[in-house]
Amino acid sequence: MGGSTGTLGLFFPVFLPTGIAAAAYAGHRAYHVDWKFWITHFLTAPGRTSRILLVFFLVLNWKSLPLAWTVRIFHSFLYHLVRRRKALPKQALFHYSITTSRNSLLDTDYNMHKSNSTYFADLDVSRSHLTTHLLGPAMFLIGDNAKNKLVLDKEGNVVKGGFGMGLGAVFCSFRKEIAPLQGYEMWSRILSWDRKWLYIITHYVVKGKVRPTKYDSTKTGPTRPRMVDAETSKPVSQEDWSKYVIATAISKYVFKVGRFTVHPAIAIEASGLLPERPGDGWRGGETGTGTPEELGELDEEGEWDWRRVEFERRRGMEYAEHFAALDGTNNLFNGGQDGAIGKFPLG
């Protein structure tokens, strides 16, 4: 199963105990090291200039080093799953998760800007922060599905197996370049969902240019004033924030218990982020996403009821459905029936 959170089924029973044991052993060994001697030797012994430059290079490029991606992903798991979040307001379902990073020298291509291929490693980290923070409660509950009985098959039987998330596809549109060592931010949020896929949109944004009006939990960064129209009392934007967007990516995830596909609404609802919906709920109707009732006029400052959530889901699907349609391009592959240009080395 692809995707940065596809290893969740192994994280707690395998990787977490192994990591704790390795950290404990390393700490034990480090305690008996004469650090004063080694630091003095490092800074004064012959060859010190080369060593210092090497350390400086490694610090600037740490995120591109071997196993650095794994450390970044596991850090997001530990940060949000071990350190449980408090209950979030319903509107947090479509709020942004913000992650800061910097373009390393090893991520820079011959055009002297961030290589297009390296955007996807950053996406893994940004999506992991978003999904584990928002859907962390569901991961614990669905992970013990035999006890909680949240996921049932068509016959009403409890589905058995480990919980995981698989990455189905990624699209990225590049708008501006990122210079060497330039800082940037990744703003990720849920775009929409259907009966199978959860769609996530990520904007790469110039660092420090955009601030949210508030944070849903403990304040973790600077904010900006929330501007409201004096006559209508509706929120207004201070400026066109899209001018700070460097690139935009859309990803889609599928939830699994064993080999059984889990409706995204089950995970969202189990995380306390879906209000009650009348009729057949969030999984009814022909589309499997709820009965297509008329939503009517919505109050932007009103309660986050099921109509406002469904409005945002439908608005996001206007973009997501075009992205999903690209799955059909697999059928264009004909195996070189009319020939091929050639086969080349060092691919």
UniProtKB/TrEMBL annotation:
Membrane spanning residue stretches: 6-26
Keywords: Membrane, Transmembrane, Transmembrane helix
UniProt-listed InterPro entries: HotDog_dom_sf, THEM6_lcsJ_thioesterase
Region of interest (Disordered), residue spans: 277-296
Top-level division of the source organism's lineage: Eukaryota
UniProt KW Membrane keyword: yes
SUPFAM superfamilies on file: Thioesterase/thiol ester dehydrase-isomerase (SSF54637)
Pfam families xref list: 4HBT_2
PANTHER family per the UniProt record, alphabetical: PROTEIN THEM6, PTHR12475
Protein family (similarity comment): Belongs to the lcsJ thioesterase family.
Protein name according to UniProt: Capsule polysaccharide biosynthesis protein
